[in-house]
Amino acid sequence: MAEKTEKRVAVVTGASRGIGAEIAKSLAAQGRHVVLVARNLEKLDAVKAEIEADGGSAESRTCDIADGAAVAAMIDGVFDDHGRLDILVNNAGITRDNLSMRMSDEEFDDVINTNLRSAFVACRAAARPMMRGKWGRIINISSVAGLVGNPGQVNYAASKAGLVGMTKSLAKELAGKNITANVVAPGFIETDMTDVLPDAIKEGVKTFTPLKRMGQAVEIASAVAYFASEGSSYTTGQVLAVDGGMTMC
Ligand code: NAI
């Protein structure tokens, strides 16, 4: 194991673009060393360069988070290299939308595996280093679809609701070790994931969202930054919907 890194070390999955990239930047701005995780090294390095240009500290690690063994090895590698792992943000996620009557087993399994199982494997692997450090912050990125459902997304909504139940259970298991676990549930946020939605849906979102607009990735990042902060120490098992007031639940 390498010498212990002085800064708190944060792992952010899906950090190559969108919400994950903004989360990584906000944690770096908090003074964390951020481990950027996704499959594409070039894109990760572009985010890393942005963080470093702003005076932050980051590194890139490629990992297909759909591969559980690779996720566990990635987390173990971070601990081996830094001697610590303090913050874990499970942000990487995919959609494979289809009406339930037409949805294949593969479409269901792919989404559960990438969005939920990978987060479980990462949390399980990260819990031990956090226990050793006697401090930890787990933040799982769910979705309003996991809170209120969404037609065409039974797989995605199930994975995101699963993250809520899993996080609350982890919060109870790990509280005695000074490790918190919380959920951020974004509403409709302008990223590549939502760029593909038809204009009619985007306009519809604006109509039924009290704040009358889609959200920005940076607005999710600031919620994550709170849960990752030293000052959030008495907050665990919570679900914060950052959705322009859409759900209010
Ligand atoms: P995005 O599609 O722009 O980015 C997803 C990130 O996850 C990318 O970095 C991608 O490379 C990574 N990723 C996906 N599959 C991976 C795999 N197998 N291995 C490694 N990395 C993988 O998505 P966006 O919009 O930034 O979403 C981030 C998270 O927020 C996701 O979990 C998504 O479900 C959630 N979310 C997004 C909302 C939105 O409106 N954009 C709304 C609610 C939740």
What would you say this structure looks like, in words?
The protein has 249 residues and is an alpha/beta fold. It has a single domain (9-242), classed as NAD(P)-binding Rossmann-like Domain (Rossmann fold), CATH 3.40.50. Helix content is 49%, strand content 16%. The protein contains nine helices and seven strands. The protein has helices spanning 18-29, 41-53, 68-82, 105-133, 144-148, 154-174, 192-195, 199-208, 217-228, and strands at 9-13, 33-38, 57-62, 87-90, 136-141, 179-186, 239-242. The chain has a seven-stranded parallel β-sheet with strand order 3-2-1-4-5-6-7, with helices on both faces. Helix 4 links the parallel strand 4 (87-90) and strand 5 (136-141). Helix 3 (68-82) runs parallel beside helix 4 (105-133). Bound molecules: 1,4-dihydronicotinamide adenine dinucleotide.
List its salient traits.
binds 1,4-dihydronicotinamide adenine dinucleotide; alpha/beta; seven-stranded parallel β-sheet; Rossmann fold; 7 strands; globular; 249 residues; 16% strand
SSE arrangement:
Layout: E1 9-13, H1 18-29, E2 33-38, H2 41-53, E3 57-62, H3 68-82, E4 87-90, H4 105-133, E5 136-141, H5 144-148, H6 154-174, E6 179-186, H7 192-195, H8 199-208, H9 217-228, E7 239-242
Parallel strand pairs: 1-2, 1-4, 2-3, 4-5, 5-6, 6-7
Helix pairs in contact: 1-9, 3-4, 4-6
This protein binds 1,4-dihydronicotinamide adenine dinucleotide.
1,4-dihydronicotinamide adenine dinucleotide is lined by residues 14, 16-20, 38-39, 64-66, 91-94, 114, 141, 143, 186, 188-189, 191-194.
